[in-house]
Design goal:
Strand content: 5-15%
Structural class: mainly alpha
Largest sheet: 5 strands, mixed
Helix content: 55-70%
Strand order of the largest sheet: 6-5-7-9-8
Amino acid sequence: MLQQTTQKTVPYWIIGLFFLLAINVGFLILFVRTPQGHRYTGIGLESTGDKLVYYSMLRQGMQGDLFMRNTQTSEPQRALLFSPHWWLIGGTAAMTRIPMEAAYHIYRIIFAALFVWILYRIVRELPMTPAYRIVTYASVLFGSGFGWFYMQLHPQDSNPIIHWMYYFQNTPADIYVTEMNTFTSFVQSPLFMLSYILLLACLYVLMRALRRPSHRTDVLLGVLSFLLIIIHPYDAMVLLGVICSFIVWRIVTARQQALIRTGLYAFGGSMLAYAYTWWSFQSEPALKGWLEQNITYSPRAGMYMWSLGIFFVLWLIGMYRVFAAREKDPWIVLMAIWSVLVWVLLYLPLPINRRLSNAWFVPIAIIGVYGLYAYLKNVRSFVMRSAIISIIIMCGLSGTLWRLIIYATYTPTLTEKYAYYLDPYIDTVLTTVNRSFTQRDVVLSNEPVISMLSGAYSPARIYVGHGHQTVNFLSKQQSAQWFFGTNSGPKAQADKEAFIRSSGITALIVYRPSLTTDVSWLASAVFLQRIYSNEAADVYRVL
């Protein structure tokens, strides 16, 4: 019996291990291609700026900080950002004395392994044959859309000169909304990975409460809901919307009133986390400004249809089956509710509705394969059935294969290399900044990536950091360009000194390869002291 059970799980083991390998291909190739004398930062191709922000959190976790600051902006802060996940990863790096980059990827692997396990636990309960459960499992992990193909047909939409809002509205969401798709989420960061795990764990515990109601199960759901919302507040609307809708359906169809108590625990845990998050962001200017600039409107519906690809068609078939057959299986109904609810949330009048697509591909893929399963039962011809399955496999994996090809062939441009590889000059500058400055210091640099690197590898705050996380980003960016721009004499120097002091800037990093004007006057400025210099950069302290 044990041997038979083991044989049934072998395909899941193989697919899961292949998933663990595939999500690390890009990182491994970048590591192998590290130029001689350089150090690989451990950052991948998706959202390099975001990962430098994560590193700044990891550094704070290494210092033992459970409540963290937004180091990507210059405002003084009280450290209100509750971040248990970064504290855990950073604390592990500190205790084991391994580099924070290594801890970052170790937890990526741990979280990926935990996710494939909980996904297996869910998939094995679906009302399908064993073969279709395996297909569902693989589809959730590797399924993708046609966004890559759409961009080949419309290359003009990727033109960086066009306004960013035009780009977002005319680009399939799977190209840039990494949290929407399982594969890209697990390539991205432990933050998205953990949100996936906790979201599915909440739903799994809900199903346990459905079968065996108990206070212990309800409390567990409340705790998991709290952890999910505290690390990823956007999921509050998704989680509570799905749970409440499911409970209403269960009460109407099965008179299961006891689930109301379960829902209250989920609501309580979520609202406790959300209340603290809302308070911290509203009472801390450095967080409030970040939130106000974090505008993530959804693109038009067609951009999501392209992003779901063949799974959108299968999802329609699956939803038809759910309604036509008046499906009673709790897991199928739960996934159907989740998949439909997100369509509604994406077009609410909110500035963050694109974030509500987190993990959306999970229910889409499950309902899609369920629709395929129901449809193919009526196809008698083996040849026709095989042809349909082959086409769906090719279409469903095309986006993931496209990404793997990009990972295998990508060569960073000169400016992008700063984020991936630290040459000896940059490395020693970051070491100097780390040793010379504290969290009370504010660093200004002429090179944006060097600036974000200093925020990631030192405790100092930075004047201009990662986009929306820098409060009043555009005005600060213009001020930085003016400071390192043309100098017309003593009056300009006096104005620039006044700017430095009024802005609270205490340090400068001048990266010469990125300069467009002569800033030699900095070396003789009476309000500056050069504390480090090499062939590529200078570091100044403001006196």
